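Lay summary. Proteins are chains of building blocks that fold into shapes, and those shapes determine what they do. In this project we predict the shape from the chain. Here is one chain we studied, written as its sequence of building blocks.
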Amino acid sequence: MTLPLWLLPGIASAIVIMAESRIALRHAVAIAEGLRVPPFLVGNTLVALGTDTPEIVNSIISSYLGHGDSNVGDSIVSVSTHGSLVLGLFAFVTP
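And here is the predicted shape, written in a compact code that computers can read:
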């Protein structure tokens, strides 16, 4: 296939993702208003689920295949990355 034909599905996917993210945002705000919690809390929960789901799937599959070392390495790197990102964000959020 030529390059434009390879790019077409990527562009179409980006358009669908942008449209779906607007729908997800509207529903997240509605959930936050319905539960009377800050929208920031609902947004953080959705981001946490979105980022941790691949790691959970990876851990389940590698455990099933008998590769426990992959679970340990993934967990250590994940915790250290999340910790350093949160500490880095504190520098921007707090005075």
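What the prediction tells us: The radius of gyration is 18 Å.
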